[in-house]
Amino acid sequence: MVVNDFQVSADWLNKHGSDDDVIVLDATMAQSVNVTNENAGLVIKGALRFDFSNHIVDKAANSPNMMPSANDFESAVRELGIGQHSQVIVYDAQGLFSAARAWYMFRAMGHEKVAILRGGLPVWLEAGFPVTDEHVKASHKGDFRAAQQRGFFVDKQYVLNNLTNVQSQVVDARSFARFSGQDKEPRAGMRSGHIPNSLNLHYSMLVENHCLLDKDKLVQIFAELAPQPEHFVFTCGSGVTACILALAAEIAGIKRYSVYDGSWSEWGKDKLLPIDTV
Fold first, then answer.
1. Residue 273 neighbours by CB distance under 10 Å
2. Per-residue model confidence (pLDDT) at position 227
3. Distance CA 254, CA 262 (A)
4. pLDDT of amino acid 44
5. Separation between Cα atoms, residue 128 and residue 44, nearest integer Å
6. 3-class secondary-structure state, position 259
7. Beta-sheet strands, E only, within the chain
C-alpha cells in the first residue's frame, strides 16, 4: 500500500478504511472552537479516538499538548491496536487543524506509515461517506514500538540560544493579530507578542477548502517567506497548528525543521524570556 505526500483522499479511505492494516484516528481537539454545529459529534465510521490534549500527552508538563515520553506514547498507541506495520490515517472535524499534530507525533516516534485524510471530516461528509456518533474501541493491543527521532522537537532553551542565529528561523503559525500583540492571548496570564526575530505565517495561508495547498504553492510560500535557512523552527499557541507548517514544509521538500513544543503557551508565560510586538 503506497500513500503519497502523507495524505490520502476521502475516496481512498472509503475504499481502504476497513483493510486489516489501516487504523483511522480522529484527532479533533475537543476544546477547539472551529467545529461547526452540524459536524459536532460526527465520527467517521470505524475511527478510534486520538486525544493528544488529555490522554496521549505529557500530563506532568506545565504547558498544554506536550509530547509524552516514548514509553508513554508506545503504551497508549498499542491500546489503540496500532502495530509496527499499521497504516495510520488521522483526521479532524475542521478539515486541517489538529490532525497534523497527530501526524507529527507519530513521525517523531519513528512511524512513517502515517497520513492525513485530505480535507478531513468536511470533505468526507461532502462525499456522502458513512459517519456515526461514537468512536470504536480497539479489539486487541498492537505491537507498536516507539523509536524517538532526534530533532523533531526543540525546547525553549534551544530557541533562546538561537535567537540571533540567521541559520535558524522561527516561524509562528498564529494569526498576525496575536503575533503582533494587537490581540490579547486566549490563555490567562499570557503576555502578548512574539519570539524576537520570528516570522509570521498563519496556518490558514496554507489551507484552502479544508485542504493543504498543493506542493508548488507551498514551495512558493516558503521561498517568499525567507531565504532558506539551514533550520526552520515552527511555533504557534500550543504546538498544534505549528505542525501544519511542518507538514507543509515536508511536502515542499524542506529537510531541516522542528517544532517548538512549548510554543507561546510556554514562552509567553515565562517573564524571563524576551518578546517583541509589531
1. 16
2. 81
3. 22
4. 98
5. 11
6. strand
7. 7-8, 22-26, 43-44, 48-49, 87-91, 114-117, 131-132, 153-154, 168-172, 199-200, 207-208, 211-212, 231-235, 257-260
Alpha-carbon distance 201 to 261, whole Å? 17
Cell 511542518, located at residue: 246
The dihedral through the CA atoms of 212, 213, 218, 221 has a sign that is negative
Mean confidence (pLDDT) of the chain: 94
What pLDDT is recorded for position 32? 59
Residues of the chain with pLDDT under 70: 1-2, 31-38
Helices 99-108 and 242-251, packing angle to 10 deg: 70
> Given 236, 246, 247, 249, which residue is catalytic?
236
- pLDDT score of 33: 42
243 given a catalytic annotation? no
Q: What's the pLDDT at 1?
A: 54
How many CB atoms are closer than 10 A to CB 6?
Answer: 18
Q: Which residues contact 257 (CB under 8 A, 6 or more apart)?
A: 231, 232, 233, 234, 246, 249, 250
